[in-house]
Specification:
Oligomer: heterodimer
Largest interface: A-B, 25 and 16 residues
Radius of gyration of chain A: 16 Å
Structural class of chain A: alpha+beta
Distance between the termini of chain A: 21 Å
Number of helices of chain B: 2
Number of strands of chain B: 5
Radius of gyration of chain B: 12 Å
Shape of chain B: globular
Strand content of chain B: 25-35%
Number of helices of chain A: 4
Helix content of chain A: 25-40%
Strand content of chain A: 25-35%
Order of helices and strands of chain A: EHEEHEEEHEEH
Shape of chain A: globular
């Protein structure tokens, strides 16, 4: 079975349908799972801004995708992440995995988003008018990533 | 030894700049030693003592435990905890 990962890091709005078409599920895949994270409205938020590192961020996404594929035996995994300013309702991240069975497809996507949140170099700012607040990772973010990483193979 | 320092995430606001170039007389042999060398040289330099920061040299992550081999014109990035997705 051929396997591959596909990383998209872009300042353009994510086109979810176009991204899903990039997934090469193939005849050996019995399940496809996807996750999309969106900018949530809160307290007069006018925009969410994601900043990244030109070299370390794509390298981290590749590393996470490779780890997820090895761990769960998925055939194809796509991780697409936005940077720049986004309006409420716009997608921030989209992950899609194709695997022979449903549990592997579901788990690889859960793994990728949980680990990505604290292991890929992104930083968030919430804009309200011309002022911003940094969004720090939560204890829950760290615990979810640690749960997967403690048992990493 | 001339180093380019880069600051990412909330740390950028804490030290008041995105990047700067400094010349060091000493050649620190570890990340903790480098941080202690830089603290008095930067405005709000004590922000570098945050134990949750990650450090990368020339786009390669480094751990506090490893021996540093810094060279002239290296780029040292200090990165606040990540918050993606």
């Amino acid at each position: 079975m051929m396997t591959r990962s596909d990383i998209v890091l872009t300042g353009e709005c994510l086109d979810i349908e176009a991204l899903n078409r990039r997934l090469q599920s193939g005849v050996h895949s019995g399940a496809v799972s996807t996750f999309t994270g969106l900018v949530r409205s809160s307290d007069a938020l006018t925009a969410l801004e994601l900043l990244h590192h030109r070299v370390l961020t794509p390298a981290a996404l590749q590393r996470i995708a490779k780890a997820a594929m090895n761990r769960f035996g998925v055939a194809d995994l796509l991780i697409a992440h936005r940077y720049g300013r986004m309006a409420v309702g716009e997608p921030i991240v989209h992950i899609a995995g194709a695997a022979p069975h449903r549990r592997a497809a579901l788990d690889c996507v859960s793994y990728a988003i949980d680990v990505l949140k604290t292991q890929a170099p992104f930083w968030k700012r919430e804009w309200r008018g011309d002022k911003y607040d940094w969004v720090e990772p939560t204890l829950d973010d760290h615990e979810k990533a640690a749960t997967w990483m403690e048992t990493d193979t | 030894m001339k180093l380019t320092l880069e600051f990412f995430g909330p740390l950028r606001d804490r030290v008041g700049q995105a990047s700067t170039v400094l010349t060091l007389v000493e050649r620190p042999q570890s990340i903790p030693a480098l941080i202690e060398t830089l603290v008095p040289l930067l405005e709000s330099g004590e922000a570098l003592r945050d134990p949750h920061l990650r450090v990368a040299i020339n786009d390669q992550f480094c751990s506090s435990a490893e021996n540093l081999m810094l060279h002239d014109h290296d780029r040292v990035a200090f990165l606040s905890p990540f918050s993606g997705g």
